[in-house]
């Protein structure tokens, strides 16, 4: 229909006048129509019944400039949400609850220091082995805080970028911000913890690794992607980022656990591929301080076999897939 319409008008000036286009837009349109297989895709869900709407979207698309990646850099202030943990007081009587929350956070936060102190006292023969064990059992690396019907879990999770982590049992929680509260994120953290407790987990094969939550309201770690429904570039904030190293091989893995039902994930994956895959569809390799670095994306779901063709390689349902991105590369 589009090709027939342009041929019917037969004069580029009619397109310029009738559709408020620029001459370069019409040139781009004619170029695309000569090789439609290279420039058009009919796999999307958006349907167009009116050519004037299609053309306006198409001419707007020609003006979209994609973002490009030039190099890698060390994190500076791109991840900072953990510095902005905010508790909202509606009543002065809540202050005691906030003080209790702070006390429990400090207990979990200082647990490693207390363990090191006890070990040092034992090695200096200031404690017997039984005394050290007794005091070690009293050290807590997780606490529970309940207030106004909402329960928070304060815990240390191995190799997280900042400690301790705070998770909520309820998604709707009004008195505290910038914690892990969405069901998909909490489920992922719990699955990760269970996997790390296994004696033979694949993370142990790495020389070093760490991970962090990403908060889209404060952090600046994202993947730009084109959203055809809005005709704009948007920012895709995966919920977590992992850093993995073995020898001189290094991987940065974005992990998003929202599940297959999240809308528009195909566009997000396409945006990732445009930036981080080469022309042959293979991961681009970056050099940084003697390291060979690759960037990967994984989408977490309950059953990766349900993922559609063309995107299945980006879906996983086992935590071991994360370290295997580097180990099996």
Question: What report would you give on this structure?
Answer:
A hairpin with a 4-residue loop joins strand 7 (223-227) and strand 8 (232-236). The strands form four sheets. Strands 6, 9, 10, 11, 12 and 13 form a six-stranded mixed beta sheet that branches. Strands 2-3-4 form a three-stranded antiparallel beta sheet, with helices on one face. The protein has a two-stranded antiparallel ribbon with strand order 1-5. It has helices spanning 2-9, 12-18, 23-34, 36-39, 51-62, 95-109, 111-123, 129-137, 183-196, 265-276, 321-327; strands at residues 86-87, 142-147, 150-155, 165-168, 176-177, 208-213, 223-227, 232-236, 240-246, 249-256, 286-288, 291-300, 315-316. By secondary structure, the chain is of the alpha+beta class. The protein contains eleven helices and 13 strands. Helix 7 (111-123) packs antiparallel against helix 8. The mean pLDDT is 87. It has three domains: 2-62, no CATH class; 86-177, no CATH class; 202-327, no CATH class.
Describe what is shown at a glance.
With 329 residues, this protein is α+β, with helices and mostly antiparallel strands. It is 34% helix and 20% strand.
């Amino acid at each position: 229909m589009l090709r027939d319409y342009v041929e019917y008008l037969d004069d580029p000036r009619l397109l310029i006048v009738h559709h408020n286009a620029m001459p370069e837009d019409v040139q781009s349109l004619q170029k695309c129509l000569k090789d439609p297989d290279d420039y058009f895709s009919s796999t999307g869900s958006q349907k167009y019944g009116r050519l004037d709407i299609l053309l306006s979207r198409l001419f707007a698309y020609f003006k979209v400039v994609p973002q490009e990646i030039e190099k890698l850099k060390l994190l500076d202030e791109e991840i900072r949400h953990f510095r902005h943990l905010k508790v909202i007081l509606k009543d002065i009587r809540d202050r005691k609850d906030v003080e209790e929350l702070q006390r429990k956070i400090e207990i979990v936060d200082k647990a490693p220091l207390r363990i090191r102190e006890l070990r040092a006292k034992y090695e200096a023969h200031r404690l017997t082995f039984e005394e050290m064990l007794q005091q070690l059992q009293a050290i807590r690396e997780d606490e529970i805080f309940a207030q106004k019907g909402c329960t928070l879990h304060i815990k240390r999770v191995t190799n997280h970028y900042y400690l301790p982590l705070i998770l909520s049992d309820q998604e709707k929680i009004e008195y505290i911000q910038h914690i892990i509260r969405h069901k998909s994120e909490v489920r992922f953290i719990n699955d990760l913890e269970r996997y790390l407790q296994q004696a033979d987990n694949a993370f142990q094969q790495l020389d070093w690794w760490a991970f962090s939550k990403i908060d889209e309201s404060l952090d600046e770690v994202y993947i730009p992607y084109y959203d055809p429904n809005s005709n704009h570039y948007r920012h895709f904030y995966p919920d977590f980022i992992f850093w993995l190293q073995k020898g001189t091989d290094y991987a940065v893995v974005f992990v998003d656990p929202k599940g297959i039902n999240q809308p528009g994930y195909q566009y997000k994956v396409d945006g990732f591929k445009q930036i981080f895959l080469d022309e042959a569809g293979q991961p681009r390799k970056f050099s940084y301080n003697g390291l060979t670095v690759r960037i990967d994306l994984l989408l977490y779901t309950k059953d990766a076999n349900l993922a559609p063709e063309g995107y299945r390689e980006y879906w996983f349902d086992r935590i071991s897939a994360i370290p295997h991105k580097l180990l099996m590369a």
